[in-house]
Design a protein that fits this description.
Pathway (chain B): Alkaloid degradation; nicotine degradation
Distance between the termini of chain A: 60 Å
Oligomer: heterodimer
Number of helices of chain A: 12
EC number (chain B): 1.17.1.5
Keywords (chain B): 2Fe-2S, Iron, Iron-sulfur, Metal-binding, Oxidoreductase
Number of helices of chain B: 5
Strand content of chain B: 15-25%
CATH architecture of the largest domain in chain A: 2-Layer Sandwich
Number of strands of chain A: 14
GO molecular function, one term (chain B): xanthine dehydrogenase activity
Structural class of chain A: alpha+beta
Strand content of chain A: 25-35%
Number of strands of chain B: 5
Largest sheet of chain A: 5 strands, antiparallel
CATH class of the largest domain in chain B: Alpha Beta
Structural class of chain B: alpha+beta
Shape of chain A: globular
Organism (chain B): Pelotomaculum propionicicum
Chain lengths: ~290, ~150
């Protein structure tokens, strides 16, 4: 039995906010693949839960007239990976969330939970960072929209305020249209593992292999997922070449701060940052229509 | 103790039951409904031994609260053998010697059954990916994949 002392189901986001206001100890639960394990392991005791599972609107994936792709926070990884809108407009996100756990976990785990648990190894975060995703957060005082980069405050810590619910992840058209993207999860096993390091690259090309835009995001390279802004800056406006790849990888290493854990040492992770940044950039370039000479 | 009444379909039968809010679906299937073919392995969603189908899709029942089962259609290994005849997937596991200690087998059969019921075609690599949420500590994977291939061929 899980150490749960209270469990309530919200039918709407407003109701969830009310339940959170009424009980400051209450926590939101969506898929539970992270939270229930924490309760099982005793990291959370006397859990008081407000479930978002009954809010149908939070599972929605849709596109607005202006091309903004909206992903409900309670959309599961399976649903995102298989959704025609995601496969058409942001296939790199479908690839990334397909690397979470295994099929059973992807059937229950949600993208909102993957963001709100605040871990640096989140499989969705690097890609969402690279796509400049926006988060819609609804609370008692109203709604705010925040860039995902600003949402991560530290390991396991996000800027989810009292009685606030993450309702949607927004991907605006200018941040995905024309981009090729690639995600690499480096782990000991092909499935049911957590990344030792992860890397998402998106890139846009003009003319003859000129990098019009490039974004590089990493997981497990620092206490939170992060962007490598200097490496991005170096690549923008340049013609793609092996030399540029080397320079991008070398620069990315100077921006990160990985730790040593039982999964990998800091030194190993630094080497992975350099190598995976190059590989992801190269694949993103090819997917963006670039021609390797 | 806080309980909640749920109504669901388990192996084709309507079930109406009071469940503890602290219980996992695994707890209720094993301890209340006595469906002990659903195995408790790691209890944290890593080994796949407790896999059941919910609305036709595989889930780890250990990390699925029993209260969530309200209104759902659940299938466990107990529902696969009909009138003494093994299902196509079960027979394939027997034929290919894909069962050693047997602890992972119910879960693997349910995931393979979900693949069969989807009507899709799967390559060997896709079969491996679909079954990647299951651990077999006898390391009988080769025969398990052969069994899945056999069950999924026409």
């Amino acid at each position: 039995m899980y150490d749960i002392v209270n469990y309530e189901e919200a039918g709407t986001v407003q109701e969830a906010i009310r339940l959170l206001q009424a009980n400051p100890r209450a926590r939101l639960i969506a898929g539970g693949s992270d939270l229930l394990v924490k309760i099982y392991k005793g990291k959370i005791t006397d859990a008081e839960l407000v479930s978002l599972r009954g809010i149908i609107a939070l599972k929605d994936i849709s596109i607005e007239g202006d091309g903004t792709v909206r992903i409900g926070a309670c959309a599961t990884f399976s649903r995102i990976a298989g959704h025609p809108l995601i496969r058409k407009h942001v296939p790199v996100l479908a690839e990334a969330v397909s690397r979470v756990g295994g099929p059973q976990i992807r059937n229950i785990g949600t993208i909102g939970g993957n963001i709100c648990n605040g871990v640096t190894s989140s499989d969705s975060a690097p890609t969402l960072f690279a796509l400049n995703a926006l988060l819609r957060l609804e609370g008692a005082g109203g709604t705010r929209v925040a860039p995902i980069q600003d949402f991560y405050l530290g390991p396991g810590k996000v800027d989810l305020r009292q009685a606030e619910v993450l309702t949607e992840i927004l991907l605006t058209k200018e941040n995905y249209q024309g981009f090729g993207g690639h995600y690499i999860k480096f782990a000991m096993r092909e499935a049911m593992d957590i990344a030792s390091l992860s890397c998402a690259a998106v890139c846009k090309i003009v003319g003859q292999n000129v990098i019009a835009d490039f974004r590089l995001a990493l997981g497990v390279a620092a206490p939170t997922p992060m962007r490598c802004l200097r490496a991005e800056e170096i690549a923008r406006g340049r013609v793609f070449s092996e030399e540029l790849l080397l320079e991008t990888g070398r620069t990315a290493v100077t921006e990160v701060n990985p730790r040593t854990s039982w999964r990998a040492t800091r030194e190993y992770r630094l080497q992975l940052v350099e190598e995976l940044s190059k590989r992801a950039f190269k694949q993103a370039f090819v997917k963006a229509g670039g021609v390797l000479l | 103790m806080i309980t909640k009444k749920i109504n669901c379909t388990v192996n084709g039968r309507q079930v109406s039951i009071e469940v503890d809010i602290r219980a996992s679906l695994l707890d209720v299937l094993r301890d209340s409904l006595h469906l002990t073919g659903v195995k408790k392995g790691c209890a944290v969603g890593e080994c796949g031994a407790c896999t059941v189908l919910i609305n036709g899709e595989p889930y780890d029942s250990c990390i699925y609260l029993a209260v969530w089962a309200d209104g759902q259609v659940i299938n466990t290994i107990e529902g696969e053998c009909k009138e003494g005849r093994l299902s196509k997937v079960q027979q394939a596991f027997v034929d290919e010697g894909a069962v050693q200690c047997g602890f992972c087998t119910p879960g693997l059969i349910m995931s393979t059954t979900a693949m069969l019921q989807s009507g899709k075609k799967f390559t060997r690599e896709e079969i491996k990916a679909e079954l990647s949420g299951h651990m077999c500590r006898c390391t009988g994977y080769q025969n398990i994949i052969k069994a899945a291939q056999k069950a999924l061929e026409d």
